[in-house]
Amino acid sequence: MDTDEVLSKETRKLRKKKISFDSDDDEVPSAASRRSGRKADASLKVRSAGQKAQDDSPVAMVDDPMDLSPPSTPVPRHTTINSTDKGKGKEQDLVENDPMDLNSAFQDEAAQDSMDGYDTDDLLDQIERLPPLRFKLPNGRGKRTPASNVTGKGRRGRKKPELVYNQERTTELAKAYPDTYWQWNMNNGHMVQNVNKSSPLVSVHKMNEQGSILGISLSEDGLLLATFSVFGSVRIYDVQDDFKLLAKLRDNSEEQIEEYYCGLFKGSYLVTGGKLKDRQRWSAEDEDNHILPCPIKTYDLVTQKVVSVLNGHAEEILCIKSVKFDGKNYYISTSQDGYIIKWSMEDDWTTLIDFKQMGDGITCMAFTVSFVPNTGNKYFMGACDAHARLYDFEEAQLMQTFENLYSSYCDCGRFVDWVDADVYLEQVRQTKQLGKAKQEDDSESLVDIEEEDEDDAPFAWFITRGAEMCDDDGLSTEPNTCTLHKLIYPKVTGKEFKLQEVKRYEHKDYHSNSWFVKVCTNGRYIFAPTVNGQVFVFNLLTGQTTAILKYHGDIEIRDVIIHPYLPLLISCGDDGLVNVCSYDEAD
């Protein structure tokens, strides 16, 4: 592919622009903040039964029966970039909440209205004005109260959704706005294809940064890579120029402590989200600086300045996506505050028109969202709490809940263009034919009629991963798994979607009992990170573990993505390392 032809206007500007960082030093947090940074400030990492460190071998490969020769597309070769940012950050003044013994202040009647020179009435008034401590995430031990059953202040009780599937509207939107999700797949491009003993992946680039890297994102043209750090910076790398560092984005006007979790490229902008913390206020409950309302900030990639701020979330932003619906522009964001927000934007993608919270009758923490294929973006699935929830984006309402996919959290869900689906469906068809040959009574035939009607319905493939509850000893009560589902669409208005489990993927050494971990797929494999710095590669059709990659030491990996048209697998984790894998040229 000719690079000049695919280079976007923004990429060319960044390449020509001399790299200038508003602040060359990553902020150095307090000791407590460093502790929270090490655990990625979002970890429920727990010890799994039988968990142990793997051997020092970086990869383990097995033969895969579905083998193709690795693509010959040249990619930039091995380089290592080390951050040299060692400057001192802003000094942090931490004030830990310490209960006062008011009784000791009253030495006599004259001192009843003062304490160490302060008016006690004023102090009590200030305490009453403090916001309530935020909902603390469970640590994965013991019994967990489902969010959907919690009532009281700050939590809404269960409310049965009244919205139903609209076949006519869905068909209209699907025809007017066909999907563009899978322009690239392993059958029409040069992305990562087979990963096994015959086609191993090796590390070809390493970029070392400071602080945990919780998310990574590619630009729409695939030429820029953004990394999101808990140390308050976003770095931009040039994918086709040996992953050269092009820019480091930081909001120098921000007076509070900022951490970045996620984001996306949108034209000449980068939209970011994460966590904002009070520099001078400590939360004993969180063992970290007190949480503040968390904004979505949009950076201009050329000027490297913040040009837009969206305020609406009270806590950490976990996911941001852009979507075109019915010819209009929207962002959709999820947060630890339990709300999903739909942001209506002008054509420039920086000017807010309006925003609306998804009405679901409950509060649920959604980690990811993925739009249902062939519905004109009318519906999307959210990985929420321990469930998957189906929403109507147009009406901003919850439609259905597919409960208890995992015992603790379902923190990642993605629709997949499964390239071997025809093989699987043929296997299912043959199995059913064998079953029909043995059927003799009419009742079974009636069931078959219903199944055949369901088989004719539209459907999509959906993959999830999650974390399991732990016992009192901190051991996982169930093995960690990833799951392939079949989402079956209704055929008429008023009916419901159905979510069928197709296959679970597990391995005795696959330990991923931590939340805020994402998986990815190239259509043939699931690439699943672990808390031990590995990426397990599961074949979607056979369920076989065809490879175990390890380039992150023994610390957990947070995100992994596949490049759309180059044979690159990119991962990041709590060690501050961004690792790039590709095929070995020698092979």
From TrEMBL:
SUPFAM superfamilies given in the database record: WD40 repeat-like
Region (Disordered): 19-95, 134-159
GO biological process, one term: proteasome-mediated ubiquitin-dependent protein catabolic process
Stored InterPro entries: DCAF (IPR051859), WD40/YVTN_repeat-like_dom_sf (IPR015943), WD40_repeat_dom_sf (IPR036322), WD40_rpt (IPR001680)
SMART domains: WD40
Record-level GO cellular component terms: Cul4-RING E3 ubiquitin ligase complex
Record-linked PANTHER family: DDB1- AND CUL4-ASSOCIATED FACTOR 11
Full protein name: WD40 repeat-like protein
Species, as recorded: Hesseltinella vesiculosa
Species lineage: Eukaryota, Fungi, Fungi incertae sedis, Mucoromycota, Mucoromycotina
